[in-house]
Amino acid sequence: MEEFSAEGRWWLPGHHGEGVPGSFSFQGGDATLTVYRPLSQPDYGQAASSSSRQVVYPVVHGRTNAGEDITLFAVHGVELPWRGTDTKSTFLVEGGASGRQLEADAFAVIAFELDYLPLWLNVPSLIDGHDFNALVVDLKTHVLAEVTLAAAEVELRTRMSGRWSPHVDLHQTTSIHVQLDQTLSYANALQRYIRPIQDLLTLCVDRPVTLSRLVGFAPGDGDRDPAASIFFMNAEPEPTREPSLSDMVGMGSKNLLWAGDSPMSTSDLLGRWFAAYDELRPALVPLLGRHYSSSMYAEHELISTVSAAEALHNQLKSFESKQVSKSEHAHRVEAVLGAAAATGVDQGILDWARRVLAVANRKPLKEVVADLLDAAGDVGRAIVEAEPDFCANIVSLRVPVAHGNARSQRRLSYAQQYRHAQSLRWVLRCILVGELLGDHPEAQRRVMAKESFRFDVRRLADPEGWD
């Protein structure tokens, strides 16, 4: 989403003739509105003695000096009283839409673009340039994939956009179009439909995937109504470079799945992803977090990846997260407490021990990592062959980060911390892609074929990594 700032006049819905001067800025992921008189209409009789007040305006309308309409959502801050001279008040704005004045944060249709989407979909060009004397441009909208969800219809489309006058300026756009059964706020649409697809591409290519454009249509809008360009506060970093085909198939590529070599249709793939997303999300949040932040040190990378490993192990039914069955664990707890009580241990200590032992049935991290390596098949075996102590190393690396001043028996250099985190990421991505495809051997084959994976494993075996 492009940053911008604008001077203009601003008012609450229904008070168009009472607009106040001010400026809006959407820069660096922050959105602020500054006005020089109160947006609300104060009681002038009490204005001189009135104090500032905390306000939240669900909707604020504006029109820039250039004539562009803007709607702001969830405008909140401290409004200063009007004392007969300009009074500057600055508000935080959670989101908004340019190009329209909307009555509410409620959309019936949303459409969005992701920078990696055309490459990931392997979209064919709509321009035929084989004839040296002419270019043939296909102006139809093509639906590349579609999926019906519980409360929406999702279509992946590509078409030519641009203008014919005063000169021809055309470019191909690929977007995702979501027709909602019921209106949603932009934030809810973001979480339910945009983020899952953004996470899917991020998981596959293992690179930051940027939401480059988001538009919405209000209920009752027709084909000729302009789209509202939505913006919102976010911490999403700007892309460092343009996506490249080498990110899909190059020597350094970490991409595990795209339309160019997918064993199933994109429509089926999306259907399976949306069906599994809520279950996988606890693991995806820490695993993909590195791609939604501007930078990470080795410790951040490691602890987030280990958190993702624990979450994935806990979420997937193919793993047993308990050491023994619930009934067997209850029997163990009673056996320990009974023996302690027989020796005269104080009741307060017994109560404390019961609380501690009752939740002590989870598998230790070393066994969790071992289960994940085993589930990754050849991928896990290649990692263990390169570093036989991989599971123990992960535990040693996590202890000082997760438990403050606790000391581990062995310390890894920052380089090896990073390599262990990268190797574990390969394991988690392999399992997740296997779940998505319903074919774990195929996912393992894809990882093993990656030169970037073999490079990481070779570096993992480097004995110079220990402090």
Compact overview of the structure:
By secondary structure, the protein is of the alpha+beta class. The chain is built from 13 helices and 14 strands.
Structural class estimated from helices and strands: alpha+beta
Q: Estimate the global geometry from the Cα principal axes.
A: globular
Percentage of residues in helical conformation: 25-40%
Reading side by side through the largest sheet, how are the strands ordered? 1-2-3-6-5-4
Protein described:
Strands 1-2-3-6-5-4 form a 6-stranded antiparallel β-barrel. A two-stranded antiparallel sheet has the order 8-9. It is an alpha+beta fold and 467 residues long. It has 13 helices and 14 strands. About 2% of the residues have low confidence.
Strand-helix topology:
Blueprint: E1 4-11, E2 20-27, E3 30-35, E4 53-64, E5 69-79, E6 89-98, E7 107-114, H1 117-121, E8 127-128, E9 136-137, E10 142-148, E11 152-163, E12 169-184, H2 186-205, E13 211-217, E14 228-232, H3 246-249, H4 266-288, H5 298-315, H6 326-342, H7 347-358, H8 365-375, H9 378-386, H10 390-402, H11 414-437, H12 440-448, H13 451-460
Antiparallel strand pairs: 1-2, 1-4, 2-3, 3-6, 4-5, 5-6, 6-14, 7-12, 7-13, 8-9, 10-11, 11-12, 13-14
Helix pairs in contact: 2-4, 4-5, 4-11, 5-10, 5-11, 6-7, 8-9, 8-10, 11-12, 11-13
